[in-house]
Write a structure and sequence with these properties.
There is one protein chain. The protein is of the alpha/beta class and 307 residues long. The chain has two domains: 210 residues, Rossmann fold (3-Layer(aba) Sandwich); 74 residues, UDP-galactose 4-epimerase, domain 1. It is 40% helix and 18% strand. The chain contains eleven helices and 13 strands. The strands form four sheets. Strands 3-2-1-4-5-6-11 form a seven-stranded parallel β-sheet, sandwiched between helices. Strands 7-10 form a two-stranded parallel ribbon. A two-stranded parallel ribbon has the order 8-13. Strand 1, helix 1 and strand 2 form a beta-alpha-beta unit. Helix 1 crosses helix 8. It is globular. The two termini are 37 Å apart.
Length: 307
């Protein structure tokens, strides 16, 4: 198939591009490169790359000509960056998604795969494993825009028959992720024997999903017709303090683990508990993420930090 990935030079998008090229698809990547380029040289040489902003309808329309599927992954990412740039965050989400939908209509694209987030669950359902049926509670500009786009895409399915899948990612991690995210930040701190900095008590939990499992789910879901909202979660919760210890032990670091008060601007992002259910994913594609956090961290360490 011919496939467009918006935001395809980012962490998840670049890994997806690599997989799709390996699978024999013709891939176009549209990315502004404002936050760098994570496409490796081999993958870059095998795709068609367009530097541009997803908020430019003309560029999105041109990039999607003759495409079968659009993976719409362009977004502003990173808690601090999002918190400091709420208008840009929402513009990229709302305008970008509208442009992707209009381009899909103009070019008769069969399917849109949208990168949503587990962040839309917000502070609700602390005591529960999160299913797609849980009443969501988005608190941040990022999460609100993501939820708006889920509804917007579903509305286009209902009214115009557009095939759409919104992917609710749960704390994706893996090689080539930058240190705006907690796993690479802890690795960087541990390997330099600097203090590993944990915000809050460290008892807050997250459901960490390894990048290869995430990409595998994306690839299988792109063949599904209809309208779906799907969690991609590992279904295991780990305390952030436990993550710090795992990385410290794995790297044989002498780093001290220290606990800091979270900045006020991070409050709405500091959820106490989050673990997702991938039962719906299992029903749709027949499997779910299997790499546990210890295995995933070891894979990252062996691939990137050992000879």
């Amino acid at each position: 198939m011919k496939i467009l990935i918006t935001g395809g030079a980012g962490f998840i998008g670049s890994n997806l591009a690599k997989r799709l090229v390996y699978d024999g698809h013709q891939v176009t990547v549209l990315d502004s490169l404002l936050r760098g380029n994570k496409l490796d040289k081999d993958t870059y040489s095998k795709i068609h790359f367009i530097k541009g902003d997803v908020r430019d309808l003309t560029i999105v329309t041109q990039a999607s000509v003759n495409c079968d599927v659009i993976f719409h992954f362009a977004a502003v990412l990173g808690v601090d960056i999002v918190a400091d740039n709420p208008v840009e965050t929402m513009d990229v989400e709302v305008i970008g998604t509208r442009n992707v939908v209009e381009a899909a209509a103009a070019n008769n694209v069969k399917k849109i795969m949208y990168a949503s987030t587990s962040g839309i669950y917000g502070h609700s359902a602390f005591e529960n494993t999160l299913t797609e049926e849980v009443l969501v509670d988005p608190r941040t500009s990022y999460a609100m825009a993501k939820r708006y786009n889920e509804i917007y895409l579903a509305s286009h399915h209902e009214e115009k028959g557009l095939n759409v899948t919104s992917l609710r990612f749960f704390n994706v991690y893996g090689s080539n992720q930058d240190n705006r995210m907690v796993v690479p930040l802890f690795f960087e701190q541990a390997l330099s024997n600097q203090p590993i900095t944990v915000f809050g008590s460290g008892n807050q939990t997250r459901d960490f999903t390894y990048i290869d499992d995430t990409i595998d789910a994306c690839v299988h879901l792109m063949n599904k017709t209809g309208c779906h909202i799907v969690n991609i979660a590992n279904e295991q919760e780990w305390r952030i303090a436990e993550l710090a210890v795992l990385i410290k032990d794995l790297t044989k670091s002498s780093s001290e683990i220290i606990f800091l008060e979270a900045p006020k601007k991070r409050y709405d992002y500091e959820v106490e508990r989050r673990v997702g259910s991938s039962d719906k994913l299992m029903k749709l594609v027949g499997h779910k993420p299997e790499t546990n956090l210890e295995q995933g961290l070891k894979l990252i360490y062996e691939k990137n930090y050992t000879n």
